[in-house]
Design a protein that fits this description.
The chain is mainly beta. It has three helices and eleven strands.
């Protein structure tokens, strides 16, 4: 199978794919910095969420991570989520709730460029953080768009529903 080397090719593949074909498509992704940097926006202290494509069937978001930026612990609104590491390195830490309702760390994964991770709500929750002293970029692929999801409020030590927002929306992705 042919590698997917542009965001436009990835969009076209997903537009013509069934849900069962999506994991096979994700395995063919071979994007690098030059393929996505024109869609990037940056924050000096956090990460940004840049929407590259959104349909009723999928959503692609480029996350751009400043040094030491991190997400809160969160779910995925019932959707499948793949994370493709474009540039830099990030760590994904996974959690599950025990019988007492406490979050327990279950796994830690380090993603390097070209690496892919998969997550859904049945597997628990996760957070992603940039642990290196350089910026990083990850492409998040959702089987359907996520408008809201459970996010852990560390101060209150409980989950709350949070609406998802974008820092930028790319109007016309082209090759």
């Amino acid at each position: 199978m042919k590698a997917i080397t542009t965001v436009q090719s990835l969009i076209e593949e997903f537009e013509n794919a069934s849900k069962s074909e999506q994991p096979k498509i994700v395995k063919r992704i071979q994007l690098d910095r030059d393929d996505v940097v024109s869609y990037a926006t940056w924050s000096e202290t956090d990460y940004t969420r840049n929407c590259l494509a959104r349909t009723e069937e999928f959503e692609f978001i480029l996350l751009c991570w400043d040094e030491e930026a991190r997400t809160p612990i969160h779910g995925h609104g019932g959707q499948d989520c793949w994370v493709y590491q474009v540039e830099g390195n990030v760590e994904e830490i996974r959690f599950k709730e025990n019988e007492a309702g406490e979050l327990v760390k279950t796994q830690s994964l380090n993603l390097e460029p070209g690496g892919v991770s998969y997550m859904n709500d049945k597997m628990g929750y996760h957070l992603i953080k940039n642990t290196h002293k350089q910026r990083a970029m990850t492409l998040h692929i959702y089987a359907k768009p996520i408008d809201a999801c459970k996010v852990f409020d560390a101060k209150k030590e409980e989950f709350k529903m949070a609406e998802m927002e974008y820092d930028s929306i790319v109007e016309n992705v082209s090759t």
